[in-house]
């Protein structure tokens, strides 16, 4: 793995103990993130066709991402690009794929597995602006952690087409 790439890790399950690299929220506490699971907007399944068109524009440099306003600036562009819903300090969306529903989360803090649906393919990506203890969850998810220092030094390598 390239040293400037996101670090892959699995979210905790009930049998796991919280890891030392637990993550946290930019603007809220872990309990604020928990409330997002009650949000019906986050449960809407999106069709990938318009998102694929946006990604194609991004790859052709026809879609602007503000890399240099910090992670929050890039996150706003990514939210629009991927048609994510913003709730509780995180950005969520569910996408219908040939392998099932993909739940994607982008944030500045670690995920709470209870916000994901157990039957979905659950992925969280975050730049570690804040880190909290992991909340125990039986829902499995994969989490990619990017340090703030890595993002600040290599924003275009972290968010690239």
Name the descriptors.
seven-stranded mixed β-sheet, 24% strand, 161 residues
Radius of gyration: 15 Å
Task: Give the ordered list of helices and strands.
Answer: EHEHHEEEEEHH
Largest sheet: 7 strands, mixed
Can you count the helices? 5
Give the overall shape, derived from the CA principal axes: globular
- Percent strand equals 15-25%
Uncertain parts: 1-42
Q: Would you report the number of β strands? A: 7
| Helix/sheet category | alpha/beta
Round the mean pLDDT to the nearest integer and report it.
76
- Helix share bin: 10-25%
How far apart the termini lie comes to 18 Å
Provide a brief overview of the structure.
The protein has 161 residues and is α/β, with parallel strands linked by helices. It is built from five helices and seven strands; from the N terminus they run E-H-E-H-H-E-E-E-E-E-H-H. Strands 1, 2, 3, 4, 5, 6 and 7 form a seven-stranded mixed sheet that branches.
